[in-house]
Amino acid sequence: MNTVSDFLSRSRLVRWPVLLSPLLLGLGWTLAAGGAQADTRSDQLRAARTWAIQLGGLGGADGPRLAPLKRAPFGLLVIEPNDDDGQPWSRAEVETAAQSKLLVAYLSVGAAEDYRRYWQAGWKVGQPDWILKADPDWPGNYDVAYWNPAWQKLALAGLDTLIDQGFGGVYLDLIDAYMRRPERPTARAEMVRWVCEIAAHAHARDPQFLIIPQNAPELLSDPGYAACVNATAQEETFVYATDEVTEAGRQTELLASFKAWRKLGKPVLTLDYASNPGLISQTYSRARAAGLVPYVSVRNLDVLTPGR
């Protein structure tokens, strides 16, 4: 499962005055001074103080499915759009799980996965031509020519399914795939255009639909990108998978980038991978001190860790 983008080199790369009740803090929400809950999804995202991501382990037809997520104490929750058998969650299940939180679906737009419903028998590298290369770190995953109209048509069809299911937004993975195309001078600009096309397509159907890209926070400086996204998420800011503290230079670079996002009023979600209790506590503390919205989990993202 392509839950993270660590095929890349490790060398690369408005808070409000509020009064929080214990219940609201647990749910990750804040109240404005007037006491009114945020009206739009974008407002709710900016108000969320906790988030989590689970991309497996919810079972198939006989599993727990989404019912337990209704009580999950997070302001934002990202999940797979399908159960563990590959079948889409029903709209009723999504709407029930989304009570008291924003529920957002995962979608890889920079890589193809052979366990997805769109995958056809006989497909392999070069057939069709937008399948470029197998990912050696993630069996069943393939680099794609994300600028190719045929691939984009498939991905947008998946996006339409998420909207039909009732999700409030999409969590876009493999945005940093452009860094794997150094031979293509237009790769970065094409990724920005691709993300903005996804946003335009979604907003034509649901104007409040949230667009949350994972990784590549540097794209904020590219013309038009900021207007297309609501927030950014970043893996391994403080801890590599698993329990390996990141380099000071990486942390400094990322934290500087995050300041630009926050200056625009766009939340920064961090996702680190740790099992050591002391390191987990340290990671949450450092992220909170920097004004970030942190989550620390296991490498496979197949359980909900407690969050803080």
Describe this structure in words.
This protein is of the alpha/beta class and 308 residues long. Helices cover 29% and strands 18% of the residues. It contains 8 helices and 13 strands. Helix 4 packs parallel to helix 5 (187-205). It is globular, with a radius of gyration of 18 Å.
What is the element layout, followed by pairings?
Elements: H1 22-27, H2 41-47, E1 51-54, E2 76-79, H3 91-97, E3 102-108, E4 111-113, E5 131-134, E6 141-144, H4 149-165, E7 169-173, H5 187-205, E8 210-213, H6 225-228, E9 232-235, E10 239-240, E11 244-245, H7 248-263, E12 268-273, H8 277-289, E13 293-297
Parallel strand pairs: 1-2, 2-3, 3-7, 7-8, 9-12, 12-13
Antiparallel strand pairs: 4-6, 5-6, 10-11
Helix pairs in contact: 4-5
Can you give keywords for this protein?
18% strand, three-stranded antiparallel beta sheet, 308 residues, alpha/beta, 29% helix, TIM Barrel
Low-pLDDT regions: 1-38
Q: How many separate domains?
A: 1
Q: Biggest sheet: strands, sense, closure?
A: 5 strands, parallel
The CATH superfamily is Aldolase class I
CATH topology: TIM Barrel
Q: Label the CATH architecture.
A: Alpha-Beta Barrel
Q: Tell me the series of helices and strands, N- to C-terminal.
A: HHEEHEEEEHEHEHEEEHEHE
Distance between the termini: 26 Å
How would you describe the shape? globular
Question: So what's the oligomer here?
Answer: single chain
Instruction: Give me the number of helical elements.
Output: 8
Average pLDDT reading? 90
Residues in β-strands, percent: 15-25%
Q: How many strands appear in the DSSP assignment?
A: 13
Structural class by secondary-structure content? alpha/beta
Helix content percent band: 25-40%
Please list the strands of the largest sheet in the order they lie side by side.
Answer: 1-2-3-7-8
CATH class: Alpha Beta
Give the C-alpha Rg: 18 Å
